[in-house]
Amino acid sequence: MARAKKMKPTRATSTLGPADKLEIKRLSNAERSAYFSRREAAKVLRSVLEGDARRRAVGSIKSLVFRPAIRNKKGTFALVCQTLKHLAIIKNVLEASSILKGKWKRQAELIFIITYDILFGQAVSPVGDAEKFLMQWKDALQLALARLLVKEKVKTVEDLVNLNQIPEVSKPRYVRVNTLKIDVDSALLELGRQNMVQKDDVVPDLLILPPATDLHNHPLVINGSVFLQGKASSMVATALDPKPGWEVLDACAAPGNKTAHLAALMRGKGRIIACELNKERVKRLKETIKLSGASNIKVLNGDFLNINPKDPSVSTIRAILLDPSCSGSGTVSVRLDNLLPSYAAADVKDTERLNKLAAFQKKALAHALSSAERVVYSTCSIHQIENEDVIESVLPLAASYGFQLATPFPQWQLRGLPVFQGSQHLLRTDPAEDGEGFFIALFTKEDRINHFEKQAICNTSEALSRENCSDQLLNRKKRCVIPYVGTRLFQIWLHGKQDWPQKNQKHFQNK
């Protein structure tokens, strides 16, 4: 009972009548926890379904559940995922029973959650109007489910669920160390007390743990010392490589993991403008920034396309990270998008939506290239139309501004699709091998030394002659040359050759 007394009043408790509050007090701890988890899960489910309907999610299922406002994170996450997994069945059963109408239609998400518990989950105590209402219909719901099994010619609910499911991708648990709060070795030591941990060989501040390692309640995660961030996502800010003291723009910043990573790479020095158009996503962005402890980030709630590169407040920006809205096709299993109605309903690619996304991506990248000296373009998409085609479309404009494609992570073997000359500089990650499909392109002005670097080099010694300064600049240019990666790798990847070299050894083997 002590745990119940500590609970702060929530929206769920404030709407209860005196009789319901008395009934809740009589519940066991497990029953009480289930009651509140259903309310929290319903709110998350509403955000997920509304975002899916608009094709503009406020955040992934995980990010919505594991935010500070959600108390029972583990229980809520499981309930949301399982309800989404069974959502097509639940809707079918509710429709067959003619239950979802009137005032209950306005509380559809809560009805979905409770129906899941009645049919597939744990026992439902008749506390709360929705629970009491649905428990009266329990027999009708079970009968409708039995008829659905017969109609679909399957024997079990699991067979029914599997009709529309895709296999899950097992991958290591990646943890990015927030070096604003803790160094990599200290984080490795602390996490290693209870888990097998090792450093990643590509991203310096990334640690690798066994698949399915649950760290959501770990103190280092709760206090922002480490972030649960995938490897491919962590490669984006690393590819931009911002230096301490720079001014950097994150063009489409929410939910903020990459923004916080930029701040850590800059050691908290300089300035970052985090731009985000969506008001709801701005809230999530600010939460992430606060958790990271970064003090050099300014949040701008506005459209990146409306930023004037000649405006004095942004004219000194040296690097831009552009991770625009995309189809998310490369992170379907990671974000759990395969559980969403839009994914189940899509038999073919939504060509119209992809074309609209690509048009925006081209416009945003062209705008980013109008300023700065380094620009990273990234997506979590596997579609050529959002990746190589976008890059190819802006190459003439990029060249007119003095940009050229550089090669991020030259040791990485999977490069861009060979659809234009220079695509070997682009980087892809494989959803099957890497657990998520990302795309990264890096534009740099390597053919000219920027004014700031030139001034710094030439002023190192007043005794330097004009010739010596020129020689020093020439040597600086030579050190910036990035190794070329041959196109045979693309052909091997594109045609699925069996001799494709393994990028990553298995980090952990079953004992």
TrEMBL record:
Please state every residue range assigned to the domain named SAM-dependent MTase RsmB/NOP-type: 163-446
Alphabetical GO CC annotations of the entry are:
nucleolus
Taxon lineage: Eukaryota, Viridiplantae, Streptophyta, Embryophyta, Tracheophyta
Q: Cite the GO molecular-function annotations of the record.
A: RNA binding; RNA methyltransferase activity
Question: Which annotated residues bind S-adenosyl-L-methionine?
Answer: 252-258, 276, 303, 323
Q: What is this protein called?
A: SAM-dependent MTase RsmB/NOP-type domain-containing protein
**Reaction(s) catalysed by this chain's protein:** a cytidine in 25S rRNA + S-adenosyl-L-methionine = a 5-methylcytidine in 25S rRNA + S-adenosyl-L-homocysteine + H(+)
The record's section on InterPro entries has:
MeTrfase_RsmB-F_NOP2_cat, MeTrfase_RsmB-F_NOP2_dom, NSUN5_7_fdxn-like, NSUN5_RCM1_N, RCMT
- Whose protein is this, by species? Carya illinoinensis
